[in-house]
Amino acid sequence: MQTDPSSAQPPAAAPQLLETAIAAVEQRLAALAQTLLARDNHGVDTAAVELQRALANALDCFSRNRGPVPPALRRRLALASGQVASQRDTLARATAALDRAIEVLIPREAAVYNARGAAALAANSGVLKA
Question: Which pLDDT tens digit goes with each residue over 45-97?
């Protein structure tokens, strides 16, 4: 009969594993924040993948934990969760702003650079002609 090596660890090691998992998430969040500030596209992709891995590992560690989670670790996990939500919100706002800027620069409706485009724009503008 084979046993899972992680389940053979003494209960005293569980808080240390949780601590290590949360520290990895915090480190990856900080790295992602730095790459976002630096506007390093490749770095953002890499940092995001590493954060996903750290989050998956933390989730795995917490799901295997049989004892109570110390309050300090619980607070750190809640703070990390808030940081993830904040970064997600910041990225969504930046994406929306970029979409609006592109819409101004490149309208989706007909172009007015030729006679047909001007006619199409006038037909859809809501202005009545007498």
Answer: 999 999 999 999 998 988 888 888 889 988 998 898 898 898 889 888 888 98
* Within a domain: 51: yes
pTM, two decimals, is: 0.63
Residue 16 — very low, low, confident or very high, per pLDDT cuts 50/70/90?
confident
CA dist., res. 103 & res. 62, Å (int) = 44
Question: Domain limits at 37?
Answer: 10-124
Does residue 61 belong to any structural domain of this protein?
yes
Is 129 contained in some domain?
no
Cα dihedral 112, 118, 124, 127, rounded to 10, equals 120
3 within a domain of the structure (yes/no): no
Helix pair 71-105, 13-38: axis angle to 10 deg: 20
Mind giving me the DSSP string for 45-68? Answer: HHHHHHHHHHHHHHHHHHHH--SP
Distances (CA, A) of 130 to 20, 92, 115, 127: 74, 44, 20, 10
Q: Considering its fold, how many domains does the chain have in total? A: 1
